[in-house]
Amino acid sequence: MRQRKVRVFLIFLVCSFGIWLISRLSQTYSHTVDFNLVYSEAPEGLIMMEPPPERMGVRLRASGFQLLAYQLSPRNVNINMGDARMSDKGYYISPQAYREQIEGQLGQGVGLLQIPADTLFMNFQQLQSKTVPVQVVSALDFAQNYMLDGPLQVEPSQVHLLGPPSEIDTISEVFTESLRLSELKENFQLELTLTASERLPHTQFSEDRIRVSGSVFRFSETVVEVPVEVINVPEGIDIQTFPDVVGILCKGRLTGLKDLKARDFRLVADYAALESGTGRLMLSLTENPTGVYEAQLLETSVEFIIKRE
């Protein structure tokens, strides 16, 4: 019997407290609550470089129930940046302008009593655009007697950038992530990301992935003996090189190598660019036929003697 009386008394206390709490929360109070500021609709052609304040404490007049809800779950309030104005200090939204925006998003029966007197400054920059070439960073290792048939194919070969001048003014080209392949003997095609996008956070890229492909073929080799031509020789002297014929190791398809002749090449030694310290003439291959994919001099320099006429 005593326990039953205790339970009844406790129920009475809980009910009484609940009625009292409901009565209190139904009353109107003023209190400061925090709002999360969400920004939208930047002025056309502008981009925000630094985030403005993300939270703001405002004083409201509302019922206890409403204030409790705001306290338990801070509300997002949209700030339309289209209201931003320009001054000598940059773009800003006045307290009156964002007060009106906040008031328009409050629930029924909620009054806005006070907001911070601070002006919201926006760090905007004018967007600019430019088109730059794509450079593929590659380290290709081919299987023995295999090589690349022409240059790598890059699609797209250029990308369009849209961003603030502080990011894109100094950009003249963009690079892909490193392409590393080994023991290549077959054609390949893959996609690579652009590394610049990581360090240009406010810039938009027309493409974020680049398609790269290459054709690989098995090559043949042959050596062509080509006479050395000395240029820029002063009048009155004659130059004799040793050797006077140098071998050129040529790589390419068999069909492009079988008919090679010495006259298809031009191998020169520039007397005006005499190598200091050695007294030798450096060799340079200035002409070679299109059927040769790679041409390697078996001698890079020659000795010489001067003959007086």
Task: Outline the fold blueprint.
Elements lengths: L1 H25 L1 E13 L5 E5 L4 E9 H9 L2 E6 L4 E3 L2 E4 L1 H9 L7 E4 L5 E7 L1 E8 L2 E5 L3 E3 L4 E3 L2 E6 L1 H4 L5 E2 L3 E6 L3 E6 L2 H4 L4 E2 L3 E6 L1 E3 L1 E12 L5 E6 L2 E8 L1 H4 L8 E5 L10 E7 L6 E4 L3 E8 L1
Parallel strand pairs: 1-4, 9-14, 10-15, 20-23
Antiparallel strand pairs: 1-3, 2-8, 3-7, 5-6, 6-8, 9-13, 11-19, 12-18, 13-17, 16-18, 20-22, 21-26, 22-25, 23-24, 24-26
Structure summarized in a few sentences:
18% of the residues lie in helices and 49% in strands.
| Distance N to C terminus | 141 Å
Task: State the CATH architecture of the largest domain.
Answer: Beta Complex
Strands of the widest sheet, in order across it, are: 21-26-24-23-20-22-25
Indicate the proportion of strand residues. Answer: over 45%
The CATH C-level class name of the largest domain: Mainly Beta
By secondary-structure content and strand pairing, the structural class works out as: alpha+beta
